[in-house]
Amino acid sequence: MILPSDKEYTQTKRIILGTERMKPEFVPLAEWIDKTFNVKTINIIYDTLDNKTPRVQIFFEYEKEKNKFLTNDISYFDKSKQKAIGEKFAEIIKQQGLSKNNGSFSNIFGLNKNGIYLTDNVFVIYGAFKPIAKLEATYKITQKQTEEFINSFDNKDIWTISIGFNIPTFFMFTDEKVKEYDKPEIKTMWADKFFDFIKPFDEFNYFKRTDIQVYLDSKENFDKNYESNWYYYYK
User: Fold this and answer.
1) d(Cα 127, Cα 201) in Å, to the nearest integer?
2) CA-CA distances (angstroms) from residue 202 to 16, 62, 137, 214?
3) Single pTM value for the model
4) pLDDT tens for residues 14-56?
5) SS in 3 state form for 189-217?
6) Strand pairing report for 123-128 and 53-60
7) Domains of the chain: which residue ranges?
8) Contact status, residue 154 vs residue 199, Cβ threshold 8 Å
9) Helix (H/G/I), strand (E/B), else coil: 108
10) Which residues fall within 8 angstroms of residue 100, CB to CB, at 6 or more apart?
């Protein structure tokens, strides 16, 4: 679940909104995860990698819950927790009579038909709903609305405003103007205005004023060091 258009996000969103429920065969696993790790599992999605490796995606609402299953080193995932959840998934699915061996010929051309799941060497990953919901809020803003917001400042020194990773960056035309406007009182005022601007798009009330920080940059820097290319800028 990386983008608002991903099926994992849209399905999890429907569950949060109450228009859909988690698959019943996954509910016991969700309850075990919640009790074992003191989190709240919103959704569990099963699929396969290369039609042979079962993958279980565990979705929480908040990043802090997801982070309980990660490490600060190069391994990224907490292997012991991955293993425990994978084994519990296999156990619960087998108890329900819904498992099939990974090498079964019937799975080669279509996995998980008729609610049957592979349970050998399960790969477990995690996702958080809130960061993607905040990203979706920014996606709802049209170019026209952005232009109207910029015009509301009535400031000819502002070239544009870019919302990357939910962070508003105000682009002045020149580096010199960035220095001129880089003052706490100005950035606080602009952050207040941005908060008022984003809230109507914030379906789940995730944006908080205290979390919003305004960054300043310049068209001069954008053109000179990033070839006037947003891809290079946010890469």
Assistant:
1) 22
2) 15, 16, 5, 18
3) 0.87
4) 999 999 999 999 999 999 999 999 999 999 999 998 878 999 9
5) HHHHHHHHHHHHHCCCCCCCHHHCCCEEE
6) parallel
7) 7-133, 140-234
8) no
9) coil
10) 106, 107, 116, 117, 118, 119
